[in-house]
Specification:
This protein folds into two domains: about 120 residues, no CATH class; about 30 residues, no CATH class. It is α+β, with helices and mostly antiparallel strands. The longest helix is centred in the C-terminal third of the chain and has 19 residues. It is globular and about 45 Å long. The strands form two sheets. A three-stranded mixed sheet has the order 1-2-3. A three-stranded antiparallel sheet has the order 4-5-6, with helices on one face.
């Protein structure tokens, strides 16, 4: 399912549509490829999304934003993040804006990895999990002790 679409034209009078995919770098199905070539899982997932949404090319500019769980982005994702940063910098006049989309994406990936990591512990029961703009804070009961995990 397509995730997002701009309301205004992105380029050549067409709106931009994008789909975000986060393949697991260390999944058994990807490990053989990702061990030999960084970004192999992202490239494979991006190619699959481009085929799936190929019909959109008549009405939209499509980007498959693909970032592996280890942080590797496919080339089109890098280009999109650079262009977003450039466009924001033109409007705000702040050249630092070019780095902010990468930082936001990295922070979202770290949060998702933390949640996935915490959910793998069978002996731990999350009592409370708070997700904010700055960190993930989870209170976990292990035996008789409460452990606070902040990421």
């Amino acid at each position: 399912m397509l995730q997002h679409c701009t309301l205004t034209p992105w380029v050549r009078g067409k709106p931009m549509a994008w789909d975000v995919t986060v393949p697991d770098t260390f999944a058994e199905s990807h490990l053989g490829h990702t061990a030999r070539k960084p970004g192999a899982a992202a490239t494979k997932a991006s190619t699959g999304k481009a085929i799936k949404y190929g019909a959109l090319s008549t009405t939209h500019i499509f980007f498959s934003v693909t970032v592996e769980t280890a942080g590797t982005l496919n080339q089109l994702s890098v280009e999109l993040m650079q262009e977003l940063g450039r466009r924001i910098a033109v409007v705000t006049g702040d050249t630092r804006e070019t780095a902010f989309p990468f930082q936001r994406l990295s922070r979202a990936l770290q949060r998702g990895n933390a949640i996935a990591f915490l959910s793998t512990f069978n002996m731990m029961w999350p009592l409370f999990c708070l997700i904010s703009n700055f960190c993930i804070c989870s209170f976990v009961l292990v035996g008789q002790k409460i452990i606070i995990i902040i990421i």
